[in-house]
From TrEMBL:
This is ABC transporter ATP-binding protein. Transmembrane segments: none annotated. InterPro entries: AAA+_ATPase, ABC_transporter-like_ATP-bd, ABC_transporter-like_CS, ABC_transporter_ATP-binding, P-loop_NTPase. The keyword Nucleotide-binding applies. Residues 1-223 form the ABC transporter domain. Belongs to the ABC transporter superfamily. Keywords: ATP-binding, Cell membrane, Membrane, Nodulation, Nucleotide-binding, Transport. GO terms for molecular function: ATP binding. The keyword ATP-binding applies.
Amino acid sequence: MTKRFKDLTAVNDVSLDIHRGEFIALLGPNGAGKTTLVEMIEGLKKPDSGSIRILGRGWAKDEAFLRTRLAGVLQEPLFINKLRVDETVNLFGSFYKLPRRRSEEVLELVELLGKRKALVEELSGGQRQRLALAISVLNQPEVLILDEPTTGLDPQVRRGTWDILRRLNQETKSTVILTTHYMEEAEYLCDRICIMHQGRILTQGTLAHLLQVHEPGEIVEYRVRDEAACGDLTSHDNVIHYQYDQASSKARILVHNGTDFLFRLSRFVQDRKVDIDQIVVRKKTLDDLFLSIAGRGFHE
């Protein structure tokens, strides 16, 4: 699929297969093309070239069929503030001719049953997002699209929303497509990750696969005032890549085996009397992955 807006190519010749029951992340910085891509999947925008098939159907001929089997949650859902929570869910349930008990089921699923008599305007941002999730799964859609559903939420509320999203995927068996620019969100929730940048998919796969394919290894970070004093450490076979930031006096080394390097570093410090502190050994993250394949940090 390709989609252009005047001189901007928002989605640039993207091909993507999404499997039934999968929880997949479209990950990328702002402007990567994630929202435009999902809006084409949702039938809200038409691609300038290419085609989309969902459950074996296309939007041109089977819109009525697809509308009953696909649901989405936008970044900023809008509701009628003076309605109660249960009235809001019942209203949407009536569009599908669902019994009232279904409203209570979905409110319990998103942990809003205790707020069912509250006015929508009394809900917090996180609670409004959970209300949007409740509405989206009313008719048990086969495909659920979540467009940056936790943007603007504080970390504690965001983590609680992640647990609800994971439970929705497990209990409803829906295929879930998540767009996000939170690395840790994609890492926590998704079976497969597609990293988008400037309208293209740079790479895709499970987190373990991506980290193995793109510069496998572990990262050692530490502070040292005299970079030259540690020069011998970086010439070892265990070292894949070395980087030193003069401003922060911070060394960042990608190694094959973090434990072996840490043992060698410890002996080196003792022998040379080098002043090193704040040593961290960690696995590579999605942020490291994006840096290695895009040549810049994710939030850059």
